[in-house]
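Page 42, continued from yesterday. The earlier attempt failed because a stray header line got pasted into the input along with the sequence. Redoing it now with the clean sequence only.
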Amino acid sequence: MKVAEVAECYAKHSDALVRFAATQVGPDHADDIVSAAGIGALRASTADVVDVRAYLYTSVANAARKHWRSLDRRTRRERLVARADMFEQREPDVTFAAALGRLSPQQRAIIHLTYWDDLTPAMVAVRLSVNDGTVRRQLARARRRLKEVLDDDR
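This time it went through. Structure tokens are written below.
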């Protein structure tokens, strides 16, 4: 797959890709999703791809999933902050910071990359040079430990 092939296919099918993306994320975000997928396809233009059009559609579907994952994570973080604000007798930031301090450095890094940088476990694994399973296991342990510590503070 060459850059020229990707660009030509993108230009030819961009309207259809936007319509496809609109069914995945709605019309407000469809253009952004298609642009992100197109840029990703151009970056990966050295890959051995037989059907560029199918590759672009797959890229749009993956970008749509990433969009929803990021939105879901952001919503969960906002709900946690809103819920913590309901408890006026404690300072949520200080308590949470203290709870984070009880985690191992690797668990703190995984929590940060997962929730503040919106990375998937696979992306975190690449950043930290560990296995995907290690990230998932450490994330589960960190969540459990944070819950224990925060529940003890109530």
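Notes: Helices lie at 3-25, 27-43, 52-85, 92-101, 105-116, 121-128, 132-152.
Reminder to self: strip header lines before submitting.
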